[in-house]
Amino acid sequence: MIDCIFCKIVDGVTHAEITHQAEEIIVFKSIQPRAPVHLLIIPKKHVLSIKELTEEDRNLTSSLIYTAKEVAEREHLPGYRLAFNVGRAGGQVINHLHLHLLGGWKDGELTEV
User: Fold this and answer.
1) Any bridge partners for residue 18, and if so which?
2) CA separation for the pair 110, 9 (Å, rounded)
3) In a domain, 33, yes or no
4) CA 25/CA 46 separation, integer angstroms
5) How sure is the predictor about 109, in pLDDT bands with cuts at 50, 70 and 90?
6) How many domains does the chain have?
7) CA separation for the pair 20, 8 (Å, rounded)
8) DSSP output for the chain
9) Residue 56 falls inside a structural domain
10) Which of 19-23, 53-57, 108-112 has the lowest mean pLDDT?
């Protein structure tokens, strides 16, 4: 087994507050939220980051974004931010591809990041 916290969540070894699951994707609440709604959307397949994607992952990345859209609609978010951090220098802390879905701010609450 890869020593990856997100893979352990996918495998059910580590607990997370899962809000959505599909064939290739799992969505769960961030344990360090940066917004009123902060969800992590990850592929079940272990991919280190955007830099490690291959051509065969093209549909996977599309699924991440469409899942974010569907989850945002289900959460009734009128607006939201999607973010990929790539590599340590880009702010990526966990070495498993993940998309941040952040939202739930009231008008005027959001400050520039």
Assistant:
1) 28
2) 30
3) yes
4) 11
5) low
6) 1
7) 16
8) ----HHHHHHTTSS---EEEE-SSEEEEE-SS-SSSEEEEEEESS----GGG--GGGHHHHHHHHHHHHHHHHHTT-SSEEEE---SGGGT--SSS--EEEEE-PPTTT----
9) yes
10) 108-112
pTM of the model: 0.90
Domain range for 73 is 5-103
Residue 75 CB neighbour total at 10 angstroms: 15
Complete edge-to-edge strand list for the sheet that includes strand 18-21: 18-21, 25-29, 37-43, 99-103, 80-83
CA torsion through residues 91, 97, 61, 32, sign = negative
Q: What's the CA gap between 40 and 106, in Å, rounded?
A: 21
Query: Catalytic site residues?
Result: 98
**Domain membership flag for residue 60:** yes
Evaluate whether residue 109 is within a structural domain. no
**Cα(34)–Cα(55) distance, integer angstroms:** 32
Kindly report the CATH number assigned to the domain that includes residue 10.
3.30.428.10
Render pLDDT for 67-97 as a digit per residue (tens, 0 to 9).
Answer: 999 999 999 999 999 999 999 999 999 999 9
Q: Give the Cα separation of 54 and 74 in Å (integer).
A: 30
